[in-house]
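From the pipeline queue, job 12 of 40. The input is one protein chain; the requested action is below.

Action: predict structure.
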Amino acid sequence: MIVTRTRSELAQALGDVRVGGASLALVPTMGHLHRGHLSLVDQAAEYGDVVAVSIFVNPLQFGPSEDLEQYPRDEARDLTLLGERNVGLVFLPSDSEMYPDGEPRVTVSAGPLESRLCGAFRPGHFRGVLTVVGKLFGLLRPDVAVFGRKDLQQAILIRRMVHDLNMGVRVELGDIVREADGLAMSSRNVYLRPEERKQATALSAALFASKRLYAAGERRAATLLAEIDRHVVDHDLVELQYAEAVDPETLEPVETVSRGAVLALAAFCGATRLIDNVVL
């Protein structure tokens, strides 16, 4: 496994690993890896001859009052975990290496989609996400990139960026990996205090209950969303920020759901913001 920290080291390593026309599959991460990330790494190995993983906590996607400085980091553990996988290349840049001129003047906007769902509560977040992913695609030139379904809005916007800007990268999605009690795996789960962690399972339980209603024949979005609220309301440490039923391409709310529609939510468990979703 080759570990690179600068763009020049990365360019050299890419020249070495692509000898003979080897294809490259990229898994972009912000580190503090868990089984969800590692499942994406394993999936990437099915798509490319060489798997590359980037680890970079991107300051552009954090708002002024968000947890950039506190975001969990454990570089040594991350490298150990990746060394146990089929990873050929790791890119671990600093802020100054990714943004040598400071915050970029040219960024990537998702347009109206930027203000939907999480974007309505995190202004500028998805502009930061698309900008850093665009830079990573430019630096690594992957054939395939793999993202997790937990961050479904992010994945949809990246797919749209790749399509609209003709970036030539195939974007694949990996399923949400959950704890035994249903909680979606997230690096931010380490913030949860014991009672918050216990109550956080209400989020997945609510989504699964709503999905069962859909499977039983319910098609009214309002009824499915009321079921989510019913499962969350009695948990005093959990506060829904939003719960919506949306079209999987446009992210616009739907009144009547059909196959492929998404139930998505965000909530605060104590001070920790968590997201989750199910595809119907």
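Job complete. The domain at 2-174 is CATH 3.40.50.620 (Rossmann fold).
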